[in-house]
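From the pipeline queue, job 12 of 40. The input is one protein chain; the requested action is below.

Action: predict structure.
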Amino acid sequence: MNRLSLLFLFSASFLWGADVTGTWYCTVELPAGTGSPTLVLKQEGEKITGTYSGTLGETTVQGTVSGDKVEISFDTEAGGQKFKVTYNATLKNNDKEMEGRVIYGNLGEGAFSARKKE
């Protein structure tokens, strides 16, 4: 492969950015306890759609990705209260891992990490 082809491939991967499409196994640590939800995500451009499955049941998610920054959120209900859950993360290890903060409405704020299924 010549140098021009290699340069094109490198430039294209940089311009297209991250790819979060796939199944993600998460670990969430909140003041109220820990959990291990699963996110199944599909990315189209900067838009993310998918599903959350975990302690709060199963629901659809939406979000965005910009560079190595990811935001995913969904609306849910627990204990008769409706609230929004928001994950803010930074991608790591060639888009195979992410870590960041999560806000679970009135349940509190905590840390989370996720690993992409290979």
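Job complete. The longest strand covers residues 81-92.
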